[in-house]
Amino acid sequence: MHPFTNYLRxxxxxxxxxxxLDHILFLIALMAVYQTKNWLKVVISVSFFTIxxxxxxxxxxxxxxxxxxxxxxxxxxxxxxxxxxxxxxKFGQNQKSNFKYWIxxxxxxxxxxxxxxxxxxxxxGESNYWQALLPFNLGIELAQLLVVFVMLIIMGIYxxxxxxxxxxxxxxxxxxxxxxxxxxxxENWPF
Amino acid sequence: xxxxxxxxxxxxKPAHDFHVSISQAEWEDGLLKCTIRVFSDDxxxxxxxxxxxxxxxxxxxxxxxxxxxxxxxxxxxxxGQILKGEFVGMEIENDxxxxxxxxxxxxxxxSLEVYNLLFFDSFEDQSNIVNVQCGSxxxxxxxxxxxxxxILEF
Lengths: 191, 154
Hints:
The structure holds two protein chains of two kinds. Chain A is mainly α. Chain A has helices at about 5-15, 20-30, 40-60, 70-85, 90-95, 100-115, 115-125, 130-160, 165-185. Chain A is built from nine helices and no strands. The radius of gyration of chain A is 17 Å and the shape is globular. Chain B has four helices and ten strands, in the order H-E-E-H-H-H-E-E-E-E-E-E-E-E. Chain B has a six-stranded mixed β-sheet with strand order 5-6-2-1-8-9. The model of chain B has no long low-confidence stretch (mean pLDDT about 90). Classes of the chains: A mainly alpha, B alpha+beta. The interface of A and B includes residues 72, 120 and 181 of A.
């Protein structure tokens, strides 16, 4: 194998393993309002999320991301709480709006701060800055797209075959995500 | 029902443990030179398992036993024979520690079996990547507790 493949696998497995459930919870909440026919919007949103946390991960060297880790662990579930709440508003349920892209990008920046200890491992000692970082980020994106793909199928089955409204799905998913993330916020209360 | 929620919530952790080590090896002029980079806290914890809870990573720099410790987990085989390795030294740089090793190997290898079992006894999700450069050929092994050795062809 070439190192590229192995760094790609590292990023991929990191999301697919149980370690990154908060990432997956965010993705599921982010896409809860979309009908399956709007799958392209979902893919773009998720890619904006990846770009967001790739940016903060890749900025590790500049120390701009030297924020207290305890505070970040509080901020991450807070992004899920906010996304779930937004899903309950008319504005958040608008399938045509591009606002979700910007939400995904800016919340991706916050999620990337949780990766701070990855940066040194992936960059220090490599002959080329991007050698490990780029495939690692691509692996994360691949895994997230897989999660999205599976969720779209489940949502498609729910919508078409069971003939249920995506609105009910959204209420169920957003409610669950809100509850779980709120408990995470309280557990990581930094003040 | 309460237990269900506790289990569910405990699965969601914003801070991800990243159980990874990355090693670079390069063959040149009869020597296979290796740098293993590990997280300092993982290494200290692993050393404490062998040498007691009060063992500090800083102590390891001047500890003769460190080489023995590393070579127990990391190395190469050629034609089924373990290559005799030599521990060169160690550097600590904040979160990361760098372990330096070298293995005398007269000819450029056409095939090399690599193993790195560091931290496999501590973390089920540990991944150890080992990149080996031999001339212009670069090969990489992905080692995990499920697959702790790999043969690289050059």
